[in-house]
Amino acid sequence: MAKRNIQVCMTPKLFGLYADKKSIVVVVDVLRATSSMCIAFEKGVEKLIPVSTVEEALEYRNGGRDYILVAERNGKAVKSFDFGNSPQVYLDMDVKGRTVVMTTTNGTKSINIAKKDHDVVVGSFLNLDAIAKWLIKQDRDVIIFCAGWKDKFNLEDTLFAGALVEQLLDTDLYDNSCDATQASQVLWDRAKDDLFGFLKNSSHRNRLAKLNIDSDVHFCLKANQTNKIPILKGNVLVVEDEC
Amino acid sequence: MAKRNIQVCMTPKLFGLYADKKSIVVVVDVLRATSSMCIAFEKGVEKLIPVSTVEEALEYRNGGRDYILVAERNGKAVKSFDFGNSPQVYLDMDVKGRTVVMTTTNGTKSINIAKKDHDVVVGSFLNLDAIAKWLIKQDRDVIIFCAGWKDKFNLEDTLFAGALVEQLLDTDLYDNSCDATQASQVLWDRAKDDLFGFLKNSSHRNRLAKLNIDSDVHFCLKANQTNKIPILKGNVLVVEDEC
User: Fold this and answer.
1) Distance from the CA of B135 to the CA of which of A35, A36, A84, B14 falls in 20 to 30 A?
2) Residue B5, Cβ neighbours under 10 Å: how many?
């Protein structure tokens, strides 16, 4: 039986080189967009609309419905929005049945690049085991699409890619011939016993530390806090449970 | 004293994100362009003209001078050229004082991208220690520019980047805040005891194995076969000795 392919795309700028119009794309922006999405669904959000620009997000404000508006640029909340990108805002709020409109520096942009030609799901450490199990059930090639930081390579998304690659390769159903896939696995293997320590000098952890949100980093690196798989249907993320 | 910056650019497609108009750029295409360049100079070549297209290279043929014309696309020699990209062609030939005109799939393209705004030198495992020493003497920031494979990330160039990063960081003169720099160092550290084995499943080693040129791979992974530093002056590579 032909094995399934796993590619890792390290930044949005490279996505066109990996896109094949048939793989399932797992979009990853560990710090913090896709972590926030996973926990939002865990806490009961019903729909999440990822948009690329602040202007698009603002149009929803004037739409008359009771949206939760989330906008982050350069790590900070955008003025006049309900929230920035912290996953922890969903913890103490009753968000059951509500719709979130979200725009972030990297994550929502990546979703909107991938959706043109591919089925899209959202991954983070928070739903790691669930998304691995869900992917294994699909008989499909996979592209793990790291959102990076402003088109640059980043460590945290690549580590997540390696963690997911490890689980997929354990099944023997997948082929491992992509150089970026192999690299992500080596990085994960080195980092997995102390993710927070490994990311000590990483550019984005330092960016967030300056904003005093190290607790978000700890939160986003915790594996398996939810079984929810955010799946894009049209332009809207909805959720599937991986039981 | 402010530390010098080291960035690793993993593919030509990302170079614009790292370019700063002031760093020295070390172009790396381990398999095989920059290895060939280093050994060509070691064997006495006086000048090497890297051109981006086969057509440009052919213009030199009609120029009347006694150029050695080298052209590679997709791992193979281009028809009607003297040689492909193998570094081993320089071993048994008298090339003293001659000029090579070279075009390759990735390496020469990267040199021509970098030269627009940066000083360019050429690195490979064959001149690893020499280029590290030479860089340390310059009081400049460094971008290690991996040529990759058709704009994709590749392992072998990133491993070389990691090897060079290790030597530069040992001096305590350089800062290590770029995520790609940190990743390359981790990969190098994992691979360094058995580079050939580590690259077993890499895409380009497999591409070359199909062409029966595994011996080139062994050749290109040998460290410190020359002290020559190919340096770009205008559009021509010439050589500096690092003693």
Assistant:
1) B14
2) 19
